[in-house]
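We treat protein structure as text, and this decision shapes the records that our systems exchange. We quote a single record here, exactly as it is kept in our systems:
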Amino acid sequence: MAAFLDEYTDGALYIRVSTDKQEELSPDAQKRLLLDYAKKHKILIKDEHIFIENGISGRNARKRPEFQKMISLAKSKPAPFQVILVWKFSRFARNQEESIVYKSMLKKQCGIEVVSTSEPLIEGPFGSLIERIIEWMDEYYSINLSGETSRGMTEKALRGGYQCTPPLGYKAVGNGDPFLVIPEEAKLVSYIFDQYCHYHKDPTAIARQINDMGIRTKRGSQFERRNIMYILQNKFYIGKLEWNGIAAEGRHETFIDQDLFQAAQRRIAETYSPSKRRSVSTCKHWLSGLVKCSICGASLSYDRNAGKYPYFVCYRYAKGFHKGSSAIGEKRLIRSVEEYLNKLLNGQDFTLSYIERNAPELTAQDQCKKELDNLAVREKRIKMAYETGVDTLEEYKENKERLLQEKERLEKQFAQLQEAPAAPDAKEEFLKKVRTVYDIIGNPEIENDTKGVFIRSIVEEIIYDKEKDTLTFRLYSPQKPA
């Protein structure tokens, strides 16, 4: 820094505090020390040239917005400052390769030096060697810390520790203790399960209802379909802890009943939605999107502004793409759907397609077997933890007893499932669903969204042939035939 003592020089401060629990100065403390250093060495620091990043790792420069902002500004012509002050070189970068690249670029292309106020270097080649050693030690520390953190989190997960972000309905209390229930949020989670399982609301419709209430996610955003699906599938609500492939029984209070949770999983497994099918909650009619034109395959749009006699018509025909209107009145279409379902219930034969899901549904036996296999892995890990000195003998005995109780419960459950009666015939089960759908769509007091959800649980599409005056129903089931 001797070169900067004769006259005032423009400088910048780069301040960073990591995400890990290392001993380091706070942003305010770093700023105070850097400003003191700048004052002693006649370096002028403007407010807009102070770059602070709090809780951000130094392993990857691309993930540090303030760092990138500083580098971009440094490339301006002329350069707005001639020196960048850091408390330690590890604040600038923890990756030696990136540190060398950025320092070299700043010095050669911009004439800017990076100076550590707590790690002064001597001039010449020996000083450069010392700087490289410091950078290498910083990178080694970062990599080693990452490995230690990962091992610690794995051990914590094996012991049933709490280290994930609390889901909606819970708050963390620290020290790995069980999360506590937040009553108001728990009511919202229960509402979501109730609307999905008991009222058969579409996840998008549930998200819209919650947003209309003025309720927001934990991050302050509006709810989306994916938020609702995450909640419905989160096993934390029934007392399960899952982290990085490790599963354990939690000790937190639950407020979602096991039967309700399983009902949600069954409905998710049985719900088939083609990639281009719109959400029921966005449709004008409960049959919208299901009825297709036999000429071009496009959906028949619902025109509710057609006076007393609203109808469905091929939108491509309406735009002049082909001859033949493919139009059918709403009342007639509904009557035809009801008549067809009634025929099925009265013995008419039908062909049932099985829709293969992206992720095949695990049976109860498969799930139980999977948990038993996972338990065996956990038993080996707690034994290894004891043998390597991570756990005491008392901790090992406690963990082993807990796993033994869980193993006995799972083995008993697996034996009961094996003794269970064979799965019913797929067509018989399908006809039970047909009966439910028939009753739902024929009830004028049930809202259209619910009718749309139920009809889509058995009908993939309906092909309307205007010329032949026929409706062809394509039925499906997520249950594989025996």
Notes: The radius of gyration is 32 Å. The longest helix spans residues 125-158.
